[in-house]
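sorry for the late reply, my laptop died twice this morning and i had to redo everyting from scratch. anyway the thing you sent over, i finally got around to it. pasting the sequence first so we're on the same page, its 309 residues, then the predicted structure underneath. double check i copied it right bc i was rushing
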Amino acid sequence: MKPLLLRLHRWTTIVFAVPLAIVIVTGLILSFEPILQDTAARGLTLPASRIVALIAEHDPEGKARGLAIRAYEDRLVIQGVGEGGSKDIALSTGREVDDGDRFMLSDLFGESRYIHEHLLFDQRWLVTATTIAMVVLIVLGLLMGWPRIRNTISGWHQATAWFLLPLVILSPVTGLMIAFGVTLAGPQPIQDRAALPSIREAVEMLGRDRDLAGLIWLRNRGGRLLARVNEGGRFSVYQVSRSAVRASPANWPRGLHEGNSFGLMTGIMVVVTSLALIGLMVTGLTLWVRRTFLRKRHRNRLPPAGAPA
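ok and here's the structure:
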């Protein structure tokens, strides 16, 4: 069975090599985002009154549909206003910032997230198929038996897969749970739109009990006004209505996949997982290329048929 399993393992990798590489590399880029958000927020103080004043200055008509705070770029983004559909405000000066064509770190994260979830042409189905293929590769590797740990490319490939197995398998499994809408939190009630406060009111309500340096975004999602807040490295989601601010049940698959469930260590865990997946793919393809090249060279050295020994 082992030669058959090895052949299936090898060809599954080759068939999905390109989308696998794209998903893994963009995942590595995204794994640094929660770490940067948490690190930047720890050195920032941002009372609700400061955000309310900036909204009042740059959105006097109250048209804002949401906002985002990118502490690692010193930015408050007010969504739903301005010529481009949003305004970037510098938190340090309170002035609107026009970066023109300058590529920002948030642009890198945004593009990477889109590619990670859609690839290049809205191919969610291919991302899901690639994630399933990743799980299949792990299962095939397990079925091939215990590793032979040696100081070779094959030895490093097997050692990485076995010693980091919990992390390696957690990433694609949680990715599939996100793709199929599994939250382990149960359905959330949809709010009456009349009960939704304005963005300015929601900021005031959120700021009554906490400093808002950890506020990541506030926006309407699925008929609910939700706020994502960094609380010591753990990203929590709150549902805001005119009556109260209620914590939503934790979405464990997403939190573990993105690296924001248990603070900074979860983010580092996701970085290590991404590097391990890259290492597995590079060593696996290297083994395939070497095997193919050596087999071809061996065939070229064979004497022609019918030649004397």
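The mean pLDDT is 88.
thats about all i looked at so far, will dig more tmrw
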